[in-house]
Amino acid sequence: MLKFQYTELPHNASEFHAMVQITANTVIDAVKPPVSMLYVIDTPVDVSLLRKTMEESLKFIRAVDQISIISDKVIVPWTYCTDVNKEHVLNYITHTKRHPDFTNLILYAVEHCRGHSNAHMAVLTDTQEGNIDDIDIVSSVPVRIHTMGYNKHNSTLLKELADYGKGTYNFLQSMREVPIAFGSVLGAAFSTVLRGVTLRIKSDTLITDSMRYVGDVYADEKKQILIPCTIDKTITSSMEHHTLKVTVTGINVISKQEIQIPLEKTIVSGWDNMQDESVTKRLEEMRVVNELRKARESNETVTMLQRISTSLVTLQEDIRMIIEHNGLTPLIQRTELEYKDQRDNRSDEFVSDYRTPFRMWVAREHENYVNQ
Predict the structure, then answer these.
(1) Most-buried pick from 52, 121, 203, 260 (CB within 10 A)?
(2) DSSP assignment of 216-262, as one string?
(3) pTM of the model
(4) Is residue 87 exposed (0-12), middle (13-18) or buried (19+ Cβ within 10 Å)?
């Protein structure tokens, strides 16, 4: 779906926004391709907690899927998840430790995924070190990387790593959140419908981006991509209508087919300048996301957060929680990403505005099983 900010463009306007909305279908009854799940655990985790979490995860993983677990060493090698092998996996699980070199651990883990199609990596760490300089190695292996920071950790590093790996970054405030966080990542792996979604944009009279990369879209997920448009005055100053053409491309993971969806919409100048509510709401979200980034980089973080604490109703609880934690950087970054990417990346008691049924169900099943 392609929308414009205005019903008709104000006569004196030279800039406005368009918005593409993409929603992927549900996957409940779909035949999903094999998944390779790698868990990288770079911090001590209670063995019984980890074992119960993995026991629940294995209920969702099929015989055609593979699993591996790495800590300071390989705990579980790549294993097809037949019923017999699932018992072996649980028996392999032992105490986890912190690796002495986080960068080398990640690079090793990425290489560990080489040759595995549809690979997802869940990284749990409390590292304060690490430097992902060799991005070419990370990006050369098509693995989705989901990072989870616990305790005091290098949140900037984990956020960047998740960005490079086209995954999510989450901040766990306690180890009690491990089951729901792992369940959420597993739900993401099994609910990816569209991969590598890209927008190709054209207009004869508007100056705008020629391409926008969106990334993966999970089942039932709604992506709203804003496209800033500026009227090209060098073409004509009296043009009364402007046409925007957008082609949505990517891969349908379920059907393994390329998608190519053409969208086209024309806006005319006029006096009906009513604004589309969904576009203005998304503009406000992105404005607040930008304010969160400024607050995170400021020496007056809490003061800046208080200024925007009433600006967006859906964000008020998050900002209040961040202020209560004295402007804790990982919480700000998690909130930034959640609203910027329109993706549920949390495991606390709050329900994300961007929750999707399948991922939330898998995550809650993990939480309920471990806590029963």
Answers:
(1) 121
(2) EEEBT-EEEEEEEEEE-TTT-S---EEEEEEEEEEEETTTTEEEEEE
(3) 0.85
(4) exposed
